Amino acid sequence: MKLPKHVAIILDGNGRWAQEKGLSRSQGHQEGVKALVELIKYTNSIRLEELSVFAFSTENWSRPKTEVDYLMGLVEKGYKKYQKEIKDLGVKIKVVGEREMLKPEIQKIAQEVEDATKSNKGMNLNVCFSYGGKQELVRTFKKLEGKEITIKEIQNNLDINNDVDLLIRTGGNQRISNFLIWQLAYAELYFTDVYFPDFKKEDFDQAVLYYNNQERRFGGLK
């Protein structure tokens, strides 16, 4: 089975997973972190070249302050708990998004994890946090002010340069929600009802199988 080079995943369904089990949304987010760590381990082990994960969108800032504060605290706790484990995997991590919206402690974590993994030769892991696809395009066009606008120049100045081959969205919703809107131009889209805390390596393999069964023509006839 052929692996796509670049897989993007929208981590959806943590809160609903918890609510259906009579748990708090916070507990759902905790389980989502565990599932994400396992996903990173697995995709790195099968030599996926690049994984982009949509962890927190610019629109998520509109959620109740208590939930947002909890998620920010979860980032700090998760970093302390998993930092050595993730670094030892050899993945190269890039944090993508509107960093100025994050509190200084989270900005520091983002910089630390990038610095600590920048020489790693394993999978490229893009963590999209406080991220929006439209906002990424605005940042890109600002970089190109005064230059000739071409597809190549835009691509080279995006936060994430490589096109996505396969998008996976967990949780049952079928939309891209302002995620990597340029890079998804020719991606295969795979939607699953599985909530992210329950998303296992077998579910990832099923998405890759779906990808392998598609005929990718990129606008051509064959």
Please name the defining characteristics of this protein.
alpha/beta, Undecaprenyl pyrophosphate synthetase, 222 residues, 7 helices
Helix content: 40-55%
Overall structural class, as computed from helix and strand content, comes to alpha/beta
CATH fold-level assignment: Undecaprenyl pyrophosphate synthetase
What is the 3D form?
globular
Strand order of the largest sheet: 3-4-2-1-5-6
| Mean pLDDT rating | 94
Multimerization status: single chain
Please describe the topology of this protein.
Layout: E1 6-10, H1 14-20, H2 25-45, E2 50-57, H3 65-89, E3 92-96, H4 104-117, E4 124-131, H5 133-143, H6 151-157, E5 166-169, E6 188-191, H7 201-212
Parallel strand pairs: 1-2, 1-5, 2-4, 3-4, 5-6
Helix pairs in contact: 1-2, 2-3, 3-4
